[in-house]
Amino acid sequence: MADLVILFTSIGLSEQKAKETLKNEVLSSALKDAIAQAQGLLGSTDIDKATGTLLYSMVSRLREPRRLAFLTQHIVQRKITTELQVSAALDYVKSHPQDPLDEKAFESACGVGVVITPEEIEDTVEQIIRKHKEQLLSERYRFNMGLLMGEVRAAMKWADGKIVKNEVDMQVLHLLGPKTEADLEKKPKAAKAKAPENETKEEKSSTVNGEVKTEAKSLMEQLRGEALKFHKPGENYKTEGYVVTPNTMNLLKQHLEITGGQVRTRFPPEPNGILHIGHAKAINFNFGFAKANNGICFLRYDDTNPEKEEEKYFTAIREMVEWLGYKPYVITHASDYFQPLYDLAVELIRRGHAYVCHQRGEELKGHNVPSSPWRDRPVAESLVLFERMRKGMFTEGEATLRMKMVMEDGKMDPVAYRIKYTAHHRSGDTWCIYPTYDYTHCLCDSIEHITHSLCTKEFQARRSSYFWLCNALDVYCPVQWEYGRLNLTYTVVSKRKIIKLVETGVVRDWDDPRLFTLTALRRRGFPPEAINNFCARVGVTVSQTTTEPHLLEACVREVLNDTAPRAMAVLEPLRVTITNLPSNAQSDVRVPDFPADESRGSHVVPFSKTIFIEENDFREVMEKGFKRLTPEQPVGLRHAGYVISVQRVIKDASGKVVELEVTCTSSDSAEKPKAFIHWVSQPLQCEVRLYERLFLHKNPEDATEVPGGFLSDINLHSLKVIESALVDRSVSTAKVFDKFQFEREGYFSVDPDSTTEKLVFNRTVMLKEDPGKI
To answer: For all residues of the chain together, what is the average pLDDT?
Structure first.
């Protein structure tokens, strides 16, 4: 085992990744074989990290083990050198199972031998920009740049996406020059009636050339009135499948007298975990539907399982509901109704619809479960036994109360009550029997006179039992409506799996910013308005929705662009000394908080003889298309009114550039530079955390996509910590969760780990979507 860990780490895997790989015997065996084959081909035991990474990527996704040697050979011989080629290779062998494999066709499909030079990328971009030049000059930075990217990538399939994007950005900048204030202004929208305050937008989206086009429609418009074809309060009987009894109309009349015809919904989470992005849709749907129709929404904790509930979850759930901007009409608990629920269970037995059963839990699992031998026991006997259950006269699992009904999924006689000798967080030791979801859900809705019981699609199989139980007890019966769950790719949200991520040290806790729990999204800096906008954009659908994170990130950018004030920060600092300024020179530079609307305020930053710029804003050797600072090329300093030119490059003993000596000239008298860069002077040192996706595959829980399990799919580069970044002093008084746009870097939020001595920033999202994330 230890030998294999050493072997796997020798090709670039971390020790943790190597140990996780060993948990999957098939994967570890295949990887061992691939390494042995690679060493044989190389005639050496040394495999560089780039080759090792590709080998691991190939082995972890390969479904055709007999192609292992063939693919390993192509990687070792550097015929396959990128992840894009690995994916193409795997697709090819999967779709061509026959032998022999046509190697020439395979290599053509994988781009083997295709070399795309920077000059070719430059020429292709130039041709495409020339094609759209007239429209670019007319629309400037409002032009759909995704169109350019799409055409270049269509013409050069195997070109590096980041190099293509950089070349497009540079050539567009060269053609149009830096953005003006007019470019930064929002694109004017067609006049329309003002939407009611606090309404979030749903946007019907379509993708054109990689760019999302949207048609605005508010969440309230989706949920208001007839939009969903829901029944009106008191007209439950008009709903398809609703069961009408002789007493239904009388019960509905009493219901209307109690509610006054008001819409009533509820959000009923189990307090055994932290809410995630899927819950955000449920919160918006339940609270939003009530709000859109002048109704009320209850926050009801479904606290019927004392073994799994913790106080911290109750608090966190309420915080997240309120963080999203909703205020419950009242907060209730299923445990508030333990006595009336018990009384109703006794009545259900009296009516002959329930019985005490002694089948064990394992006997009730699976399909075609035989009928209980106690199904027809006398009512009086079940009443006595149920009372004994309550008094603690049976052991756990020795007796249950079951309802005489068959559910839509074929499940027969679901359990209504079970025995648990666990103290309840609210009722203590008062009860040792607890109701199940199938029993509690509809009756709590009935007790609270809920008009619309909104559930996710998986509860559709319980709709008939919902109606049956209310009618069996002759109580008011609400209507259950189902909607599709919201799922995101590249993540897991189950409590069990997140706990595993925490226990194995992959993430720090439930609020690790790489997760998609709501507490994690808040910590990363996602504004609640953006999450609500995202839910609106996804829309209220009956079918299950699976979407990718970039749509959520786009909503975040939209909100932060309007709300996050600008600041300047340098993540990888390079010292710059301005030699033609006196040693005590210092001036104040006023920087607008929102350059598109300077009336919204500004802040002052110092400018002195020593400043710091980003390392990658300087190149010692001039590269074609590079617009920033070189020994031959000056660059402008944003907001400062200066252009700097390199006079001397200072290096350390290893040859690394550690300082530049430059001279500065007023931008009024200097020739206009090709680019302007950000900078800091007399800055604060801070820590910056940069996040990427936690998982490598879209569906880390899918065994066909990730046979080694979700823990084998961790992106080892999902977190980068920069401990000595520099930021301008305008952020010195920032509080936890305050948000900023660091110019040219992205949107950042102050992390709770910050101290009075040192601020910590989380990168929320980049300024633009990463072209590598598709």
So the answer is: 90
Bridge-based pairing state of the strands 610-614 and 602-608: unpaired
Q: Is 140 a catalytic residue?
A: no
Beta carbons of 417 and 435 less than 8 angstroms apart: yes
Asked if residue 388 has pLDDT above 50, the reply is yes
Q: What's the token pair of residue 728?
A: 């301008």
Cα distances (angstroms) measured from residue 57 to each of 84, 261, 281, 323, 706: 11, 59, 34, 40, 11
Which band of pLDDT confidence, cut at 50, 70 and 90, is reported for residue 774?
very low
- The answer to whether residue 692 scores a pLDDT higher than 70 is yes
Lowest mean pLDDT among 107-121, 207-221, 573-587: 207-221
Count of C-beta atoms within a 10 Å radius of residue 528: 19
Which residue among 83, 122, 126, 270 is the active-site one?
A: 270
Residue 225 pLDDT: 63
Cα–Cα distance for residue pair 650/575, rounded to 1 Å: 10
Instruction: Please give the distance of CA 97 from its chain centroid, rounded to a whole number.
Output: 36
Contacts of residue 732, Cβ cutoff 8 Å, sequence gap at least 6: 684
Establish whether 211 is a catalytic residue.
no
Is position 270 annotated as part of the catalytic site?
yes
Phi, psi of 296 (to 5 degrees): -130, 155
Q: What's the rounded Cα separation, in Å, for the pair 99 and 108?
A: 18
Closest to 243 in 3D by CA, of 397, 516, 473, 441:
473
Predicted confidence at residue 185, as pLDDT, reads 64
Task: Report, as an integer, the average pLDDT of 27-40.
Answer: 94
Catalytic residue among 19, 457, 495, 773: 495
With contact defined as beta carbons under 8 Å apart, do 699 and 15 qualify? no
- pLDDT at residue number 217: 63
Active-site residue, from 79, 140, 390, 485: 485
* CA 191 to each of CA 188, 194, 533: distance values in angstroms, whole numbers, following the listed order: 9, 9, 21
What type of residue is 537?
Answer: R
Q: Is the pLDDT of residue 212 over 70?
A: no
Tens of pLDDT along 114-123?
A: 988 888 999 9
Find how far residue 5's CA is from the centre of its chain. Answer: 32
Q: Rounded to whole angstroms, how far apart are CA atoms 383 and 445?
A: 25
The DSSP bridge pattern shows strands 354-357 and 330-333 to be unpaired
Q: What is the helix (H) or strand (E) element at residue 622, kind and residue range?
A: none
CA angle in degrees (0–180, nearest 5) for 334-337-343: 135
Based on the number of CB atoms within 10 Å of its own CB, is 447 exposed (0-12), middle (13-18) or buried (19 or more)?
middle
d(C-alpha 378, C-alpha 393), whole Å: 20
Give me the phi and psi of 426, to 5 degrees please.
-110, -40
C-alpha to C-alpha distances, 716 to 10, 149, 684, 720, nearest whole angstrom: 15, 28, 29, 10
Q: Tell me how far apart the alpha carbons of residues 107 and 123 are, in angstroms, rounded to a whole number.
A: 26
Beta partners for residue 406, in sequence order? 412
pTM of the model: 0.71
Report pLDDT for 335.
Answer: 96
Token output for 596: 């598109």
CA distances from 627 to 4, 105, 170, 220, 622 (A): 48, 41, 7, 47, 9
Retrieve residue 437's tokens.
């979801």
Q: Decide: 591 and 600 in contact? Cβ < 8 Å.
A: no
Maximum CA extent, the chain: 102
Distance CA 525, CA 630 (A): 35
Q: Token pair for residue 658?
A: 């550690």
Say which residues have a Cβ less than 8 Å from residue 85's Cβ, sequence separation at least 6: 110, 111, 112, 158
Whole-angstrom distance, CA of residue 300 vs CA of residue 227: 26
Beta bridge partners of 688: 722, 761
pLDDT of residue 204: 44
The H or E element spanning position 269 is: none
Asked whether 294 and 262 are in contact (CB, 8 A), the reply is yes
